[in-house]
Design goal:
The chain is α+β, with helices and mostly antiparallel strands. The protein is 34% helix and 43% strand.
C-alpha cells in the first residue's frame, strides 16, 4: 500500500507542477482536513475542510499573491498507516517582487486511495518576510 500511496502523492505533485488543479483536488477526499503550518498567513483558516476550502483558502491565495510558485527537490518517503512524508522546497516569487526558497515538509494521510489529511511544516518567518 505504501507504494500506491506514494504514487498517488507523486501524481498530485506532478499535476500541481503543470497547473492541473482539478486533478490535485480530485485526489482529495471530500472531507479532507488540511492544515497549513502554524504562523503561516494561510493558517488563519485551519483546518480547511474539503477540497473547495483548500482551493479557496490556500491555492487561490497562492495564485493571487505569487508571480510564480514552484515545488522543487521533492522526495517522497513511504510510512506506516497510509502516511507519506514529502520533503521539498518552495521556490517562489511574490507579486511584490520578493523571491524566497524555503525548506518544507508535507505530511499526507491517505485512505482508500484519497488524501484525507495534510499537514504543512515550513519556515513561516521566511514566507512572511518575503510576502509582506
Amino acid at each position: 500500500m505504501a507504494n500506491t500511496n506514494m504514487s498517488i502523492i507523486d501524481g498530485l505533485y506532478k499535476a500541481f507542477a503543470v497547473g492541473d488543479i482539478p486533478t490535485v483536488l480530485g485526489s482529495m477526499d471530500s472531507k479532507i482536513v488540511w492544515n497549513e503550518a502554524e504562523s503561516n498567513s494561510y493558517a488563519e483558516g485551519n483546518p480547511y475542510i474539503g477540497p473547495e476550502a483548500v482551493l479557496n483558502g490556500v491555492f487561490g491565495r497562492i495564485m493571487q499573491e505569487h508571480e510564480y510558485f514552484n515545488l522543487k527537490d521533492i522526495e517522497l518517503h513511504g510510512m506506516l498507516n497510509d502516511k507519506v512524508l514529502a520533503t521539498l522546497r518552495y521556490d517562489a516569487k511574490g507579486k511584490n517582487g520578493n523571491y524566497y526558497n524555503a525548506q518544507v515538509a508535507h505530511f499526507w494521510t491517505l485512505k482508500d486511495g484519497k488524501v484525507v489529511a495534510f499537514q504543512q511544516y515550513v519556515d513561516t518567518k521566511k514566507l512572511h518576510d518575503a510576502l509582506k
